[in-house]
Specification:
2 domains
Length: 149
């Protein structure tokens, strides 16, 4: 592999790294803002003003996002504050919502985010867990015939 080491290449590389850093910061905030907008469209039935009879029809007609994804975004907004959601990211926030719904106890996903989740028989801080690990545990809880908590 040829490495470009000239001044122009270094300048371009630095600019591209800056773009990635900037977009990384705005991407984590963008999913929450999308959820806020979708929640208002849904709750206030503003899709009717666009000529749609249902929220899912508007999602399809406007080619916005899929119905499941839209409701996942809304669930994150209903559960977490902007700082909490951006700190965790969308995937972990969504996983915590699913995990809380799967448990027999009336768990609060925001409280779970600040506590521990039992994975592999051991309670671990959610901050140490990946979204994938939380999703796997939610599946285990849903499939269990008895509460695992």
């Amino acid at each position: 592999m040829v490495q470009k080491t000239g001044v122009a290449a270094k300048k371009r590389a630095a600019a591209l790294v800056g773009v990635v850093r900037e977009r990384k910061a705005t991407a984590s905030r963008a999913f929450y803002e999308m959820g806020v907008a979708l929640k208002e469209l849904h709750d206030r039935k503003l899709y009717g003003a666009l000529g749609y009879e249902t929220f899912p029809a508007m999602l399809r007609g406007e080619a916005l996002v899929g119905k499941t994804f839209a409701f996942e975004l809304i669930a994150v907004v209903l559960t977490f504050t902007l700082p909490e959601a951006t700190r965790q990211g969308f995937q972990k926030s969504k996983a915590l919502v699913r995990y809380a719904r799967a448990t027999a106890a009336p768990d609060d996903p925001a409280a779970l985010a600040r506590s521990r989740v039992k994975v592999g028989g051991r309670a671990r801080p959610t901050a140490e867990l990946s979204a994938r690990a939380i999703e796997r545990q939610a599946k285990v809880v849903r499939q269990s015939p008895w509460p695992l908590m």
